[in-house]
Amino acid sequence: MSERPIDRRRAETRREILAAAWELCHQEGLAGLSLRELARRVGMRAPSLYSYFASKDAIYDAMFAEGQIELGEHMSFLPDDDLTREDFRAGAQAFFEFCTSDPVRYQLLFQRTLPGFEPSPETYALATDRLERLETQLASAGVSHRRHLDLWTAILTGLTSQQISNDPGGDRWARLLDDVVDLFCDHAGVPPTEPSKNPRTTTRSRK
Amino acid sequence: MSERPIDRRRAETRREILAAAWELCHQEGLAGLSLRELARRVGMRAPSLYSYFASKDAIYDAMFAEGQIELGEHMSFLPDDDLTREDFRAGAQAFFEFCTSDPVRYQLLFQRTLPGFEPSPETYALATDRLERLETQLASAGVSHRRHLDLWTAILTGLTSQQISNDPGGDRWARLLDDVVDLFCDHAGVPPTEPSKNPRTTTRSRK
DNA sequence: GTCTATATCCAGATAGAC
DNA sequence: GTCTATCTGGATATAGAC
Predict the structure, then answer these.
(1) Are the Cβ atoms of A165 and B111 closer than 8 angstroms?
(2) Nearest 5°: CA angle at B55, between B53 and B58?
(3) Domain co-membership, B203 together with B120
């Protein structure tokens, strides 16, 4: 289970390559990733990359996995049980911020735009695990219909993708977030937070 | 103003090339458009395409324009004045169907995923004209805040993109459409349609 | 005017020397 | 592990036949 020095070094080089790949994609677009240029940036020739990744798609796959893990960490502040309306608001804000802060990452994780690329089963499992956790969280707030889960994801990705496509760097859709969360919560039956109490320490009326 | 035969022929060949380009993109993905393969499919060699389009991006631009015009036609059944809640429902259904029926076209029109490609000003004007018409239509139903316009587009593109990305060919998000339209209309103050009257022939209570 | 042929450049990927 | 050399093939652009 412990890492040999050779594996540590190898993992470090992989990380270095991935960091350069992200930077390159930020500059040239997700599909603009070129192995020659990527290799140049880490002081290699293109064929040497194949010692670390089996193919260009394997690099995309590792980036996809990295993005999913980052998203999981970014959302990990949310409790698994007894979500309040405040948690919905904070969760929406966090997801929105995560996505809009890196449109290229958003494109890789949530849009299917790279011809021929599909995440590997192991990597895709990261995405489904995350969705299952969300399902659990919503259910803990009494939102247990798949319709409501689907509505929640549609609302969030809708605001997010509009913000990215039509007002990058701005807040035209960001400002709608709180209203939309309230709209959803009213619809899905998540009770309003009592303004006089602290939602994180109050006993909930729901059992 | 009238077309010379030579221009007619040229326009026809352009249309033929565009049709083949759409077919190729449907098969290989939007970014998978190859000029060699495109030329092969219309019985040409690649360089001959340059007699009809100045560049590959010019082909994308023409496809973008074509898509915008198709969308305009697809939505043209909607009146410009006095939209009812029924019109919102029908409009949402029509937009959703238009988008999900051709994910590649949706990607070209609404997502910014082709590195380096931007529609020309003339072509982009088709998109802004369409959005202005939508603005007018919403205003005619008393929905005149930009917040509501933005919410409407976010909701529609959210449901649409989720359907395309996560349940292509299915109806998982399509089934949410009517509920969401009602949610939006309640929020934006579009009055419910009286069930006993025909919304297209009834005198509206709103002036 | 439109075509074929060709030139240049760049892409992902592999073989094999070291 | 990293390199050079090379394969296949796409994108752009030009020359010149017809």
Answers:
(1) yes
(2) 65
(3) yes
